[in-house]
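Supplementary Note 3. Input sequence used for the single-chain structure prediction.
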Amino acid sequence: MHRFSTADVAALALVFLASCAMSQGEEETSTGTALTQLEAVNALNPNALNPNALNPNALNPNALAANALNPNALSPAALSAIRDPGEAGALSRELLGYVVGCALTPAQSFSFSWTDQAGSVREALYPGLIGLAPSWSDKPLGQTDQQWVSACLASRTNWYGVSVTISSRGSHQAIDKTGAPELSTYTRQEGAFWGNLFDPSPYLHACHDDADHARSVSRACAAGHLDEGGDVEECGMIHIVGPCDSHCLPLNQRGMYYPSCVNNLTGSPDATTKVITVFLP
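The predicted structure, written as discrete structure tokens, is reproduced below.
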């Protein structure tokens, strides 16, 4: 299994940048607020990632999972991370916004206050979006939900740091797109994502389908970014395993998602059903 250190996990905090209205110095602006209600219901979601830095003081997902996802239950270390007025705090809040969006439903949110370097109190509000682990608001994040939220975070990364709206699909009821309007417009398979960012030895995997199309619309984390020499560069800790048809079971009968993909590519197979398949327009 392709695993990573805690420092690698911290690096991932740098790359989940807010994509709709969360600009530098405005971390309290909610991620995903530009989505229409139809998009929110169908779990179309924006993404933006810039995998270019490492900060060991950023929010640690492994520690975050041990408590309920609400300000009254977070560990002192997690609260300190998201209230830090410096650069590390900004990175922690950016990652938190995406975590909340993946885990909670549009009816849920996470809010807290923090004090900036000028001494001004800032109010932060992060709304839920997709709803892959809504019970996390009341209790620690279980392993199954850890995998779903991790797959969601991986699927929302973007090498180019630009916002691209994607259609996320999987066996989870929150992203079951049976009869959804987006099926007729989001028809190009980018690939799939899975892993566990919250594991003591965190890992994220990706496989690809239509690499050329994905790169043409500024999506490159499933197949990798091509440098000037034509070599593939991965998106931070997201390890590209290769073509999806070599690592996943065939698309389900409705052709909407891969039902299972392989975690461990050496030794005995270790497959997971907690896979998010991404489609592009």
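Residues 97 and 126 are 6 Å apart (CA to CA). The radius of gyration is 17 Å.
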